[in-house]
Amino acid sequence: MSTKPTLTSNKKILTELELSRKKVEILETAMQDLTDELHFIHKQFQNSEKVSKDLFLEAINDIIDELSFTGKTIRALENNINTVIDSVFEGDSGHALREMVVQVITLSLNHWEMTTGSSKIELAEESHIWKVHLDKGFFRVRTFDRYLSLQNLPAKPRWRDVLRTARFVLTYSEKNSPVKEQLRQSLKKLQDLIFQNKVS
């Protein structure tokens, strides 16, 4: 039986979300600065027959610095988002998320088998998302198998890999299956739960 998130847990998640919001603002500022630098270089080429080499190199260096800063901000923001989502999985609302993770990966496998006639081993090999192990002369996908059962699902599921798997099987073949539309709807629902989950 699930329990409601504690006040401390809620405050932690809200703090993380606020930090993410601030990082988004920083990222937006960095992108605006980068755009300004590109406009500056463009105008220099338009307004001058001969652009100063030093001025051009200075502008290029500024762009490189902006790109480096933006990349670091994106990585920090991604790590922060992962922390927030991990907290959501650990809380009461994580129960619905975990069920959807299992449903999406199960439907993905069903759609794959129906449209390709291949097994989960081939799915892992073709998608390069899940590792295939050779065990006692047989190929196995232990990690993938854990996602097919709510009881065996890891405490912190690799939800990105689940989304990637669903998108992969949906685009791999143009063939339809009885579960294709259900997979699309489940994928959308999982994405909504992950990125729009609200703390009550």
The major beta sheet can be summarized as: 2 strands, antiparallel
Q: Name the poorly predicted regions.
A: none
Number of domains: 2
What is the helix tally?
A: 7
Radius of gyration based on Cα positions: 23 Å
How many DSSP-defined strands?
A: 2
Shape: extended
% residues in beta strands: under 5%
Distance between the termini: 18 Å
What is the N-to-C succession of helices and strands? HHHHEEHHH
Query: Percentage of helical residues?
Result: over 70%
Strand order of the largest sheet: 1-2
Secondary structure layout plus pairing:
Layout: H1 7-47, H2 53-90, H3 94-116, H4 120-127, E1 133-135, E2 138-140, H5 142-146, H6 159-172, H7 180-195
Antiparallel strand pairs: 1-2
Helix pairs in contact: 1-2, 2-3, 3-6, 3-7, 6-7
Please explain how this structure is put together.
The protein is mostly helical and 200 residues long. The chain folds into 2 domains: 7-90, Helix Hairpins; 94-195, no CATH class. It has 7 helices and 2 strands, in the order H-H-H-H-E-E-H-H-H. It has helices spanning 7-47, 53-90, 94-116, 120-127, 142-146, 159-172, 180-195; strands at 133-135, 138-140. Strands 1-2 form a two-stranded antiparallel sheet. The longest helix has 41 residues, at 7-47. It is extended, with a radius of gyration of 23 Å.
Outline of this structure?
By secondary structure, the protein is mostly helical.
What structural keywords apply?
single chain; 200 residues; mainly alpha; Helix Hairpins; two-stranded antiparallel sheet
